[in-house]
Write a structure and sequence with these properties.
By secondary structure, this protein is α+β, with helices and mostly antiparallel strands. Helix content is about 35%, strand content about 30%. Bound molecules: adenosine-5-diphosphoribose (APR) and P-hydroxybenzoic acid.
């Protein structure tokens, strides 16, 4: 098989890039390890920056997002008994975010790829990247007993944190930066009316909690749990009781509970791999970086990589201009690190760290007090939350 750009991974990063390049007449093949059903069963984040929403529209995938997604102009931070609103719209110069689940967004991208007869090959095994340091790279994979070869001009590694692409960069070139947090998030999806029309990020001595939503009839809640906790340790009633304890009383009283339709625990991690380009390989999304979910940056950082890579490839193929490809790693990383900083800061601000010394707890209290006494601090929070410019 032959193509221009071989994309490893059929998550949001890979599909969005494939769709955008197709619309510019650039051929791609997407290789995905799992079935479409498996990819679409994963419940993940749900807050999109305006820039990401614009990219979805440019990819001709924004129709359902614009119809069903909710525009949010703010969110709340709860601290013990207090509830304070962050006015994103006011403090970001009129911007907002779109609440639309990653699962739905991925479904829209798959449907668009189908509409345009895009080549997305599922259930590929044993993907290997070859000759990346030459100008004729190729990728091989196994389909049953057969080894299939894809010849291409560029390879994009959009295969998530556990993918093969990052591992194809030689060890003496690749640098990895990582922080693992001493807790996880237990998430529950339930067909109940959300407790608040806007998100609530709650700091509490018992641990962080988040009230989020997918629609006005579908709620997504999280609580901070210990890394040793298992999903089985948290039957629905224990989850609801703990969530309620961590919310201000007036909010807890309004909480509508119901059976969970999904429940999972995710560890929290910050991770960046540098460089994001090696030879003819470009990394994008979770393959190159991970953030803790507190600032809703994960999916949005993936989208900003795709924005840079898409424009760089279009400049290469349509104008013979390689400056975007040459500058991709540095440009993408500059924004990635800002998202890392913000996610680390929001995580530190709102979680209970088991080993924190009294001095650190005082600083955390002061950080929150400063935030709500300073317009400049709220501006900074809003600017980062709605997404820094590309
Ligand atoms: N070969 C082919 N595909 C692979 C391989 C492999 N060796 N390894 C992993 N994959 C696939 C996974 O099955 C997955 O569908 O690559 C895809 C990667 O998708 P995601 O993990 O969703 O990563 P990405 O597309 O970068 O999405 C951005 O940001 O913070 C997150 O929740 C957010 O998942 C979202 C991500
Ligand atoms: C979610 O709805 O899943 C969600 C929202 C905001 C976050 C993290 C997760 O910061």
């Amino acid at each position: 098989m032959k193509t221009q750009v071989c994309i490893i991974g059929g998550g949001p990063s890979g599909l969005l890039l494939s769709q955008l390049l197709h619309l510019q007449g650039i051929e791609t093949v997407v290789l995905e390890k799992h079935s479409r059903e498996y990819v679409l069963a994963r419940i993940r984040a749900g807050v999109l920056e305006q820039g990401f929403a614009a990219l979805m529209r440019e990819a001709q995938c924004g129709e359902r997002m614009d119809r069903e997604g909710e525009i949010h102009h703010g969110f709340f931070i709860a601290d013990g008994g207090r509830l304070q609103r962050v006015d994103l719209h006011r403090f970001s110069g009129g911007k907002s975010v779109v609440v639309y689940g990653q699962t739905e967004l991925t479904r829209d991208l798959y449907e668009a790829r189908d509409r345009m007869q895009g080549v997305v090959i599922h259930n590929v095994e044993d993907v290997q990247l070859h000759d990346l340091a030459t100008d004729r790279p190729h990728v091989t994979y196994r389909a049953g007993d057969e080894i299939v070869r894809v010849d291409c001009e560029y390879v994009v590694g959009a295969d998530g944190f556990h993918g093969v692409s990052r591992k194809s960069i030689p060890k003496d070139v690749l640098r990895e930066y990582e922080r693992v947090y001493p807790f996880g998030w237990l998430g529950v999806l339930s067909r109940t009316k959300p407790v608040s029309p806007e998100l609530i990020y709650a700091r509490h001595d018992r641990g962080f909690a988040l009230c989020s939503l997918r629609s006005q009839v579908l709620s997504r809640y999280y609580i901070q749990v210990s890394l040793s906790d298992k999903v089985e340790d948290w039957p629905d009633n224990a989850f609801w009781a703990e969530l309620k304890r961590r919310l201000p009383a007036e909010v807890g009283e309004r909480l509508v509970t119901g059976p969970s339709i999904e429940k999972s625990i995710a560890p929290l991690r910050s991770f960046v791999a540098e460089p994001m380009r090696w030879g003819r390989l470009f990394l994008a999304g979770d393959a190159a970086h991970i953030v803790p979910p507190t600032g809703a940056r994960g999916l949005n950082s993936a989208a900003s990589d795709i924005h840079y890579l898409y424009h760089a490839m279009v400049a290469h193929y349509q104008k013979g201009d390689d400056s975007g490809l040459d500058g991709y790693s540095a440009r993408a990383l500059a924004r990635v690190w800002k998202a890392q900083r913000f996610s680390w800061w929001m995580t530190t601000l709102l979680h209970t760290f088991p080993d924190a010394i009294a001095y650190e707890r005082k600083l955390q209290e002061t950080d929150l007090a400063y935030l709500f006494s300073s317009e400049a601090a709220q501006r900074s929070l809003a600017e980062n939350y709605v997404g820094l410019p590309f």
